[in-house]
Please model this.
Amino acid sequence: MLRALAADPSEWRYGYELGREVDLKAGSLYPILMRLADRGLLESSWEKAPVAGRPPRHLYRLTGAGLEAAAEVAARADSAAERDRPGTRRSLRGAW
Amino acid sequence: MSRPAGDAAGRLLAFALWLLPAARYDWGLAMRAELAHLERPAARLRFAFGCVRAAAVQPAALRRLALSAGVAGAVTLLLAGGVTYPAARLELAGLLSVVVLLAWRGGRPGLLGPVRPSRTARVVRTTGFAVACAYLLVAFLDHRGPQPLGSGDGLLPGMITLVLYLVATLAMTARASTARSVTLMSGIVAGLVAGSACFALMPFERALPPLAEHLPGNGAWLIAALVAAPAAAMIVVALSTRDALQTVVALMCAGAVCAGVVAVLGYGAFLLFPDQMPSLVPLNAGPPDVRRALSRLEAGDEYVAALIWGCLLVGVLSSLIRPAVRGRTRVLRAATITGACLVLLAAPTGHVDAAVAAVLAATTTGMLTLVSAAHDLRRSGTTTARITSRR
Model:
């Protein structure tokens, strides 16, 4: 989720579209978005020019703190991937 | 063109919105707006189900669901569970409605809520509701089927006391309460100890000697426990808060809990161990089940005194747990304390009717003080907001 939101940090995203991108259903998507917002990592806004006859949708994007958290998570994921790369000690140990 | 919100998906989403706590209302609107942009019925339904799942895992929604399930269960039991006497059914339904109403009010900002963000406050409040539910269950089981005495006698005093205790518990654990965690905990623990000691020291219905007679030293040490527990609570609270009012609140709390414990143990003994209890009525009073019911009624009468003292202390306690800002609140508080003093004068001198009238007056003014203090707080909050906005 953080990676998807951090891909283009300035862009406001719709919830449903975001859920489809990261393959999360509404039941998982909204609790994650709520938690991110509670921790100050996500900011939200209402659509300024909604489609005629339909209510304005909620839009989401990462805050500064959210971007930092996304970078940290990405760095951690990269180092874990590096550790698990074939030929490293850990993967050799696993091969036994 | 957007689909109507009245289809199955729309109704599911309305349920999700109902489940969401007030603080998450914007999220509910966001879900509704997303749904309005979905066209395919299957996608709409899947999305709406997901939203219900997201709403249902919120802690406040879980509490709401549990409360609704509890109410539905209690109402079903009440209607289908064999409470045959209309008066008893009406009283039980009334008590159930009041408990549900208090649970609802306890979650909203105001006189009784929301609960303070402290473990002690949450534990005390949960225990209060557990006791109320246990009382409801016992009263329901007790009034099932044909009654030997023909009606639901003895329910009303217990119900009134329970509601007063519940209101005081909610008010004391609400955010605006001035009673601190140490005050609450010390008062309650002291009340539990003193109540058990007091019950053991009292002669049981003038028919059995006190339980303490069978204990080492005839239970004289229980007298020390009865005095020492509230004294210890006062010392602990005085040392940790350095506040005389908190010390008095702890003492009142201990007294109210003590009175409640004595009444529950006295009345509960006849419910739990009917065969071990002595008959308080003559043998010619009727068949065994009628004699047992009459004995229990007699026992209830005896322990009503403890309930009356409990109500008085709850009234005084309620008048002390909010700051008295305005003159009217201070007058009501003074009236409550004066009423309590009159009871202390009238009861030992045998003026029972005057004492009971003073208890009623003091309890009423105590509750009015609580309401008036909450009104003061709201007014002062509004005034502060107005001054701040002017600046």
User: Anything to note?
Assistant: Strands of chain A lie at 13-14, 42-46, 58-62.
